[in-house]
Amino acid sequence: MNMGLNERRKIKEMQEVTLPGRVKEIEEICGAPIPYQVDWESMADDGQALNFVDNISCHRLNMALRMICQDDMGKQAVREGLKEVKLKNVKDRESMSLSFTGGVLEMHCAYALGAGGMFSDGEIRQLLEQRL
């Protein structure tokens, strides 16, 4: 894994500040802190990708969760059904995927493409609502 100083700093900031903050928001939305597992290897050589992870995945997921968790039934479904969120960086749109199985929401996004490499909060919400 060949990573420059800027990438290492960005990853450290995400691990210590950004993601814990997002997990806290998830807890406020649904009542349970749902952890992130990030495939750092997949974005270690891609500083551009690192800049977009929070907005493209974490922010969109929270928007989707806010919609689902408007009532207690939704909050309970998320608390019981969503156990972990996995993020992975892929290089192009063709490699992107969004899945929710066994309590794990997995988003493979082309982060370096910015908005072109993301799933919308509507898509995320639809998938969760089908499976929760």
From TrEMBL:
Superkingdom of origin organism: Bacteria
The protein, known as: Uncharacterized protein
Lineage: Bacteria, Pseudomonadati, Acidobacteriota, Terriglobia, Bryobacterales
